[in-house]
Amino acid sequence: MTTTEFCEATGLNPRKLTNSIMNGLLETELIDKPHGGFRRELTPEHIERARLLKALVDKRIPFARPGTGHLRRRQAASLPGPRRGDRNGGAGQSGGAPPSI
Fold this sequence. Notes:
There is one protein chain. The chain is mostly helical. About 40% of the residues lie in helices and about 10% in strands. The chain has a domain at about 5-70: Multidrug-efflux Transporter Regulator, Chain: A, Domain 2 (Orthogonal Bundle). The protein has 4 helices and 2 strands, in the order ααββαα.
């Protein structure tokens, strides 16, 4: 299936398709061309996954590959203890009020 056919079937544009592949959200095989270079092998199985990814993006549901910065920041935000920019070392104060003396 060509990139154009795939994009028409999924509603993705070529740039978003490339980003999905480069970020590991869609895995494709590289096929050598007879006169040099390569092309990506896109199959009907990729269509279903691409449509699911597009639906998540359209609904603004955050997702990322495991181990990306987005997930690490979200996980760190849920952990107790001092955070970046926390002036009182995370010691029980929520909100912006200074600790009482």
